[in-house]
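Risk register update: the risk of archive-format incompatibility is retired. Evidence:
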Amino acid sequence: MRTTGVALFPHAPTSVALARRRLRSELIDAGVSEAAVDDANLIVSELLSNALRHARPLPSGKIRLAWGRRADGMIEVAVSDGGASTEPRCGPSTLSSLGGRGLGIVESLAARWGVRHDHGATTVWALVEAPPAGAGARMAPPVAHAGVAEFADLPDLDDGSWDAPSTRAFPA
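Archived output:
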């Protein structure tokens, strides 16, 4: 990956929002489609949240976010921390679990993801398919004039007239 951006953030929850804003701005400026930017941002949110919750900071006391466009057009995002006592892995979660879905989300959005260890740092990386903006990219529909139903107009879901969605474990 040719790194186009690197930022160090405090090992604190406020860093997640700061990192998302920075990444979004730079990817949009680079001409990446909004859908790919959204996917990359959600992945970064999950990876940073995991680093903050489960890992130590880097020796500098920070966590590192790096991103760039690869020769194949994919965007690579990578979060580095000081490591933890366990290896990041996608595990099963139950409907009643309070957590444990983050890497499942990453796995469903990323083309690939993985973990590498370099010089005392653990880096979790993910690849996002990223067509250029306007090149047949999936764009979010406009919502400015969307109608909102009145509460009384909504169907009664307890009357048995709807099909309950099937449950499926992550990843699909």
